[in-house]
Write a structure and sequence with these properties.
Number of domains: 2
CATH architecture of the largest domain: 7 Propeller
Structural class: mainly beta
Number of helices: 7
Largest sheet: 4 strands, antiparallel
CATH topology of the largest domain: Methylamine Dehydrogenase, Chain H
CATH superfamily of the largest domain: YVTN repeat-like/Quinoprotein amine dehydrogenase
Shape: globular
Number of strands: 28
Strand content: 35-45%
C-alpha cells in the first residue's frame, strides 16, 4: 500500500500543472479585482487595477473585448439580472453603465454616473433590474433608478448615509423594497428604501465586514470580516450555522451559488474555502494563490472555480477532480515578489513599482505609464497615456534627483493631485538602489 501511495504521489508530480491543477488566462496588465458572470452564463467580465474591464466567453475562456473609460483602478463589475446592463465601478468614484448589446463594439460608450466622493467598491442590481446600488468608501450608499430613463439616471440618484466609515458591500431584498449594506463599522444594516430609513442591523460584528451574501428564502446570511472570520448565520435569529476563523487574516471575497449549493470564501493569504450549503460541510479548503483572493466565480459547469487576485491573470481550478491537499501554496514567483537572486534595486522596483509600471517601451495594460526612457522626460508627456490634469500641467523633468524626491517626500507632496498612490521610502539605501536600477533599466 505504501508503494502504491508513493507511486500515486509521483504520478501527480509528473502531470503538467496546467492540465492537472489549474489553467491561467491573461488579458490584463494589473491585478484583477472582480469577476462577474452574465445571467445566461455565456460570458463573464474581469475588472482590473489597469483601469479596464475585459469581456470573456465562459465556455472556452476567450477574450472578446476590452472596455476602457475609467480613470483609475476598477474594483467591481456586475451584470443586471435581465442581461441588459453591465455596471463597473472604481477608484475614480465613477459608475459606468454599459449596454451589453454593445460590449463588442470598438466605439461603445457607457453612461457615466457621478455623485460619490470616494472609491466605489461594490455594486448590486435589484432582482427586476430596475435599481442599482453602489457601496463607496465615502461612507455612502448610492441608489440609481434605471427603470424609465437610464440616460438621466444620475439626475434621479440619491445617497443613504448611516454607516460609521466606508461601506463595503450592498444587496437588495428579493422584492427590491429594502436594502442590506455592510461596512467597516462591523454591521450589516437593513434599510427601507421608500423612506431610506435604517431599520436594524442583522449582523453586529466586532470587526469590519468586507463581504456578505443574504438568501432571504433560505433564511441565511453569510459574511467575511477583517479578523478572518467566515461565518453563516440564520437571518431571522442570528443562530450560528457555520463559523471558521483564520488567525486575523482578512476575508476579501465571497461567492454564493444558490443553484449549485456552494458558498465560497477567499482571504488575503490565498486561502479558498468552499462549503456545501446543504449541510455546511467543507468541499475544499486550499491555497489557490500566493496572495489575496479578491474575487471568485463558480463557472457554469459547476465543476470549476475561477479565481482573481494580485496577478495579471485569472486562474481556473477544478473543484472535484484535483485534490488541492497535495498543493502547498501554488503559483509561480510574481514580478512583485520575485524569488530569484536579484539586486536590491530590482527587488525594490518589483515590490514598489511593478504592479503599476513596466520597463518596456510597449507599456499598455498597466495602471501607470511605462518607465522606458523616463530619465530626461517631462512629467505627464508620454504619448498615449491618460495623465491626470495635475501631471499634464507639471514642469517636472524626471531625473535621479526628482525621482529620489518623489519617493522621499511622496507623490502627494511632489505631484499633488495626481493618480499615483501615496508611497514613501524611508530606507535611504533602498531608495538609492532603486534609483540606480531605474537609471540602467530604463535607458532608451
Amino acid at each position: 500500500m505504501v508503494r502504491l501511495f508513493l507511486c500515486f504521489i509521483l504520478y501527480l508530480m509528473l502531470l503538467p500543472s496546467s492540465a492537472s491543477a489549474f489553467d491561467r488566462f491573461t488579458a490584463h496588465g494589473g491585478p484583477v479585482r472582480d469577476l462577474a458572470l452574465s445571467p445566461d452564463g455565456e460570458n463573464f467580465v474581469t475588472a482590473s487595477f489597469d483601469y479596464s474591464a475585459v469581456l470573456w466567453s465562459a465556455n472556452d475562456i476567450k477574450e472578446k473585448s476590452t472596455l476602457y473609460g475609467h480613470e483609475a483602478a476598477l474594483n467591481t463589475a456586475k451584470f443586471s439580472p435581465d442581461g441588459r446592463w453591465l455596471a463597473t465601478g472604481g477608484d475614480d468614484g465613477l459608475i459606468m453603465l454599459w449596454r451589453t448589446s454593445e460590449l463588442k463594439r470598438d466605439d461603445v460608450e457607457p453612461i457615466i454616473l457621478r455623485g460619490h466622493k470616494g472609491k466605489i467598491v461594490h455594486l448590486a442590481f435589484s432582482n427586476e433590474s430596475k435599481q442599482l446600488a453602489s457601496a463607496s468608501w465615502d461612507g455612502s450608499i448610492g441608489l440609481w433608478q434605471l427603470e424609465n430613463d437610464p440616460e438621466n439616471t444620475e439626475v434621479h440618484s440619491r445617497f443613504i448615509r448611516g454607516h460609521e466609515g466606508p461601506v463595503n458591500a450592498v444587496q437588495f431584498s428579493n422584492d427590491g423594497d429594502y436594502l442590506y449594506s455592510a461596512g467597516q463599522d462591523g454591521q450589516i444594516r437593513y434599510w427601507r428604501l421608500a423612506s431610506d430609513e435604517y431599520l436594524r442591523s442583522v449582523v453586529r460584528n466586532g470587526w469590519s465586514i468586507s463581504v456578505f451574501a443574504i438568501d432571504e428564502t433560505k433564511d441565511i446570511v453569510a459574511f467575511g470580516s477583517s479578523d478572518g472570520v467566515m461565518s453563516v448565520e440564520r437571518l431571522s435569529d442570528q443562530t450560528t450555522l457555520m463559523r471558521v476563523g483564520d488567525e486575523r487574516v482578512p476575508v476579501l471575497s465571497l461567492y454564493y451559488a444558490d443553484d449549485a449549493g456552494v458558498l465560497g470564501f477567499g482571504n488575503a493569504k490565498g486561502r479558498v474555502l468552499l462549503v456545501d450549503t446543504s449541510n455546511w460541510s467543507v468541499i475544499r479548503d486550499f491555497h489557490a494563490a500566493n496572495g489575496p483572493i479578491w474575487s471568485m466565480l463558480l463557472m457554469p459547469d459547476h465543476q470549476s472555480l475561477m479565481v482573481a487576485g494580485l496577478d495579471d491573470f485569472i486562474t481556473r481550478w477544478p473543484i472535484y477532480e484535483f485534490p488541492p491537499e497535495f498543493l502547498d501554496k501554488p503559483g509561480p514567483a510574481r514580478r512583485f515578489h520575485p524569488n530569484r537572486d536579484i539586486s536590491n534595486g530590482e527587488r525594490q522596483f518589483a515590490r514598489k513599482c511593478s504592479v503599476c509600471h513596466t520597463l518596456k517601451a510597449d507599456g499598455k495594460r498597466r495602471a501607470g505609464p511605462s518607465l522606458f526612457g523616463v530619465f530626461g522626460r517631462q512629467a505627464g508627456r508620454l504619448e498615449g497615456y491618460p495623465y491626470s490634469p495635475a501631471l499634464q500641467k507639471s514642469d517636472i523633468i524626471w531625473t535621479s534627483a526628482t525621482i529620489n524626491r518623489l519617493f522621499a517626500e511622496g507623490p502627494d507632496k511632489v505631484t499633488p493631485g495626481t493618480k499615483m498612490p501615496i508611497q514613501r521610502m524611508k530606507n535611504e539605501q533602498d531608495l538609492k538602489d532603486l534609483v540606480s536600477f531605474l537609471q540602467s533599466a530604463t535607458q532608451n
